[in-house]
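Hi,

Apologies if this is the wrong queue. I'm a grad student, and the batch job for SsrA-binding protein from Paenibacillus mucilaginosus 3016 produced an output file that my downstream script rejects. I'm not sure whether the problem is my script or the file. Here is the sequence I used:
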Amino acid sequence: MAQKNPNEAKLLAQNKKASHDILSKYTYECGLVLTGTEIKSLRLGKANIGDAFATIRNGEAFIHNMHISPFAQGNRFNPEDPTRARKLLLRKEQIHKLLGQSKQEGYTIVPLKVYVRNGYAKLLIGLGRGKKQYDKRESAAKKDAQREIARALREKQKVAR
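Support response: The file is valid. Your script probably expects a header line. Output copied below for reference.
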């Protein structure tokens, strides 16, 4: 039986639309400040980051509109608002770098993935700008080319047998 790697991350939610609409320049892994019932609900996969965005206020980073459903067996400490602003745990240098780059024309901070690594909830945020129509066509063409290459390799392996 194979041993599980404790450093392996378990993906809980992914923002697929962000990878289609935004060209990420940098990515940062940050922690999330959650309540006990929120982490339980998150581990069950009850999270949605499709409409989420990140901001920086007073030297602290926050994520807004990240929906974490209330835990079914929760107690009185269950948060009432499932889309409340949650604090992101980043180093001061990372926050200053993000702030400086996000003030540039067209750059935004977007959450890409939520996962659990080593028992801690992590959020992968990306700094990027919106893709133009020609960028979307270019990335679709690259995907098609990769698909054709993989198909050709499979056919070649079938013939070789």
